[in-house]
Amino acid sequence: MSSDINKPAISTTVTGSNNEPKDVEIKVNRKEGGIAQTEVVPVNRKQPFAGSHMTIRDAYENSAWFRHFFFEILEMYGYPVSSMECETQQEKIMFSWAMLNLTSALTKERGLWYTLFDIDDPVMTADFFCRTYFERRKKHAIPPMSTDGPLFIPHDSEKKSKNENEK
């Protein structure tokens, strides 16, 4: 009998005071001695990421405003705006770096730009987002890439190594 404690007994949809359906789970807490208590617990629904778009990828692929906003931030920091622009391996790495960090920053500080989605100018919103992000977190939305480590390949390194081998 102890294995039934705190297990959801029923999952259902009920209506609230304004007759909107709400997903809830009814939990039955069985205690020793046969006394059972029921509890109605709301089930968390995932909120859309931006507008009607459930994920950042969905917003990026289907919203011209969000894409313009996103590209504007990449341009502000001097990163390639698309993988099609990348001609060298270093540019591809820079694009990936920027995409990962910007996605993370937009998710962390969603409140800075979410209310302006599809309403305000994406260029102004991008500027506002980057400035406010820096003021709040004391770091850039897209931090500079490290020049140490295996990911950084200086543009002149191939030329230098060829010149050194010729000597």
Write structural notes for this entry.
This protein has 167 residues and is of the alpha+beta class. It is built from 6 helices and 3 strands. A 3-stranded antiparallel β-sheet has the order 1-2-3, with no helix packed on it. The protein folds into 2 domains: 2-42; 56-158, no CATH class. Helix 1 crosses helix 2 (64-76) and helix 2 crosses helix 5. Strand 1 and strand 2 (21-30) form a beta hairpin.
Comma- or semicolon-separated keywords:
single chain; 167 residues; alpha+beta; 2 domains; three-stranded antiparallel beta sheet; 15% strand
Write a compact overview of the structure shown.
The chain has six helices and three strands.
Strand content: 5-15%
**Average pLDDT taken over every residue:** 74
Query: Gyration radius, to the nearest Å?
Result: 25 Å
Q: How many domains is the backbone divided into?
A: 2
Helix vs. strand class: alpha+beta
**Order of adjacent strands in the largest pleated sheet:** 1-2-3
Query: Which ranges are low-confidence, i.e. pLDDT below 50, for 5 or more consecutive residues?
Result: 4-16
Give the termini separation: 83 Å
Major β-sheet profile: 3 strands, antiparallel
Tell me the overall shape. Answer: elongated
> Helix tally?
6
Helix content: 40-55%
Order of helices and strands: EEEHHHHHH
Number of strands: 3
